[in-house]
Amino acid sequence: MVTGTRFRRTALTGSVLATVLGGGAILAACGAGGQDGAAAGPARLSVADSYIPLPPAGGMAAGYLTVRNDGGRDQLLKVSSPGAESVTMHRSTPSSMEQVDSLDVPAHGSLQFARGGTHLMITGWQKAPTVGDELELDLTFAKSGTIAVKVPVKDLTYRPGQS
Length: 163
Hints:
Structural class: alpha+beta
Largest sheet: 10 strands, mixed
Shape: globular
Number of strands: 10
Radius of gyration: 26 Å
Distance between the termini: 89 Å
């Protein structure tokens, strides 16, 4: 009788332990998916509020836009243009500007290129830009491939959302 009770107690302890460990593994798997954006599925990207303030004649221009994402996370790897020699991504700090190789596009979030922050630097225009022109920018993402957008050249003082 003592042996049967001990066996049942050991079996019960083993099944409780297996249940706890199994539940922990399930919770860990669910938690990991939520943290890296995998549970959100593929990225669903769109571009809004794009513009380039008119640069000085023959000069370097800055470009601004917002990449919106209604899906899983992605990463912007590079920006290029058939109408310019070079388009590079930069981040402004309080004392300098530094070039960056890539930028994250968060799941269900956005990546914003704006004055005083992250922005594009465009050099070597094939044709001197004027207000109203459009420059094609090709944005290449790690998961979503390349998206081509036409970015209008605006007055130097233009601000999106202001008339």
